[in-house]
């Protein structure tokens, strides 16, 4: 089934990334470099980076639709991040994904 941004619910992607010892500054830079450009991508409703007290990074994104998220994930920006980030991360990201079931403020869906 094909969805369109006009009919699909917003989707969220969120998770934790743990830097390797001695790599926190570089992972922080790579993640920080994603924020403003990603916020400018079509369909971006929320894009936030947090740093936890334990040193992990928490990334929270909300996209208008799965199509918008797919377009974002296909950008050179994200492809470059995905190729560089593993060198600085301890294991795979702890990631979660889902369709938003509560109404989005402002009726973005």
Question: Could you explain the architecture of this structure?
Answer:
Pfam families: ABM (PF03992). One of its GO terms (molecular function) is monooxygenase activity. This is Antibiotic biosynthesis monooxygenase. InterPro entries: ABM_dom, AI-2_Isomerase_LsrG, Dimeric_a/b-barrel. By secondary structure, the chain is an alpha+beta fold. The protein has helices at residues 24-39, 66-73, 76-84, and strands at residues 11-17, 44-51, 57-63, 94-99. The protein has a 4-stranded antiparallel beta sheet. Residues 1-6 have low confidence and may be disordered.
List keywords for this structure.
Dimeric_a/b-barrel, four-stranded antiparallel beta sheet, alpha+beta, globular, AI-2_Isomerase_LsrG, disordered N terminus, Alpha-Beta Plaits, monooxygenase, Antibiotic biosynthesis monooxygenase, 109 residues
């Amino acid at each position: 089934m094909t969805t369109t941004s006009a009919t699909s619910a917003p989707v969220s992607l969120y998770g934790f990334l743990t830097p390797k010892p001695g790599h926190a500054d570089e992972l922080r830079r790579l993640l920080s470099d994603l924020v403003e450009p990603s916020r400018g991508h079509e369909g971006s409703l929320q894009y936030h980076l947090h740093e936890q007290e334990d040193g992990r990074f928490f990334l929270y994104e909300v996209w208008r639709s799965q199509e918008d998220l797919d377009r974002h994930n296909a950008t050179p920006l994200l492809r470059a991040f995905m190729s560089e980030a593993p060198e600085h991360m301890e294991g795979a990201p702890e990631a979660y994904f889902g369709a938003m079931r509560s109404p989005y403020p402002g009726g973005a869906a």
